[in-house]
Amino acid sequence: MTTLTTTRRGRCAGIKDWQAQYQALQMTAREAAELIRDGDVLAFAAMANWPWELDSALAERLLKTGGHVAIHGHFIPAGTRLLTPELAGQVTYDSNFYGVERSLAPMGNVRFVPTNLSQTVDWLRSRKPRVAALTCSPPDADGWMSRSLWAASLHRRLLEQCELVLVEVNPRLPDIASDGACHTRLHVSEVDGIISSDRPLVETPVAAGNEADRRIAGYIAELVPDGACLQLGLGGLANIVGECLVHAGKRDLGIQTEVLSTGVMELMRSGVVNNSRKQTCPGRTVCGHLVGGQELWDFAGGNPVFCQRELSWVNDARNIARNDRVISVNNALEIDLTGQVNAESIGPRQYSGTGGQLEWILGAQWSEGGKSILALRSSYRDKAGVLRSKIVPQLTPGSVVTTPRTCVQYVVTEYGVADLKYKSTLERARALIAIAHPDFRRELERQMPL
Fold first, then answer.
1. Count of H helices and E strands in the chain?
2. Which residues are part of the catalytic machinery?
């Protein structure tokens, strides 16, 4: 463990001990909202680390006094006061990853920012926010608070740049172990205001997979060697992949992942993941965000085998490649016969975001013995109940290319595995058609590129 050092002087940093600073920094949410000026740019933490008390108090103040603020962040939780139709003319919100955001976009004040997820800190710093607001765990014996589940994107370099750092302290947040140059801890002496909160945390239920996902997961498990370092995405498929890895008897797996969910917890409990062969953070599970519910948080809180790091470090392809046998698994919405991948839009409508997909695809392939895997069900039913293929001759007009064809390696559906690396356009098309839904193969063959 490395010794942590403070990098920012908060409003009460001159007071002798952190306990006295903690008391001096106490304020109500209404008092905190009064510190925010008309025209301010704010950076907010995501989901379980969203500053709920400030959100409510600032919304009330804006409704009474008018004015405008700009908020930047991602993964906004449902039910915020600031992002409501009544404040659409006073609050703008920019996000580089949509979840709840996609349902708010029709208000007209929610906008998407295309970036790789590791660039979040650079994007936020470029907007020069005066205020950063987040929720942390209570301080430990040395005055360090954990930015915990969803605040890894509010990098220390961003907090150092802000004039005002406001922290809500919620005892429900777990204290996640973190150390090193890109740790996710924040000292009491580095903040300018502390608001007490005891709100229930935002839980993220994991969607159950179906039979197609089980078949996909089986193919993925076959591609994972013993000693691999895994990056698994979010959703039912990721959890089923974990089950398949246990069933297959894989050994000595490691974890470095952008998002850690309950499937990784089960792999750790089973002993399949022990991180024994990793080159970076050996013996420890590395993650940016922790997504799930109370069982996961109880497992991770205070557990020394975890190491939470800033997303700029976790998703840096150069850091990813420092581990051998990195296997990255990411999702796709559709893929065309040349291998272009759309993982974030439905036609021109933004659905999710670029996220870390390309970073993990590159990092895995740069890794010694690594593999990058893109998984998708071969088909879906549209609103009218008509079966449609996710492997298409050309991407839907207006769709975003999340991963260019030059970077795609393995593509997996419930019908098999296609290895596209260094294949010609004709070879790629044939490989993809072979794993497409059988109902669409003949039509796809008629539209193959030359």
1. 15, 24
2. 258
